[in-house]
Design brief:
Length: 179
Amino acid sequence: MGKSHLWYTFGGTYVNAVITGDIDDDGVLEIITGGQHSDSTSSTNAQLRIWSWDGDNLSLEASREWGTGSIFSYSSINTIAIGDVDNDGSAEIVTGGYAGAFLSSSGQFRVWSWDSTTMLLEGSETWSNASIIRGLAINDVEWDSVPEIVTGGYHSTWFSPPKSERESGASSKLEARLP
Ligand SMILES: [Ca+2]
Ligand SMILES: [Ca+2]
Ligand SMILES: [Ca+2]
């Protein structure tokens, strides 16, 4: 029988995506969850968490929350992928979702690394149009031995119905936009 773990970060807390992978290269899988939670300013922030499981205990190893900082803003993770997007031999975590204000959010994906002590934001891309990322894949779709990040989602505004959208971002583009 497994374990169940409930958590609650200030307000309503949701997990929208879960994936497993060995992020710190120690041969043991981590569990990564992504979602959102409310904060004290009535904003919704994205939440990324890394958990370890030793067969008996589920331990929180790292947690990151972020939003736009403005009141009534909405940020969330909808999907997570794991892959070596910068070709250095270690896996990164890629999160996809949105960031912005109510009904005018923008698609956002972020690349994270974790070495068992520190979680670092390696890159971040936020689209300028109203859009939401719903799915992510990491693969070498250009056959050049460097993996790309492929996103799928939709964009919509107050006055238009959702339109499907697909983008691929090369890791070199991400490196050029390190914070
Ligand atoms: Ca590990
Ligand atoms: Ca890597
Ligand atoms: Ca490629």
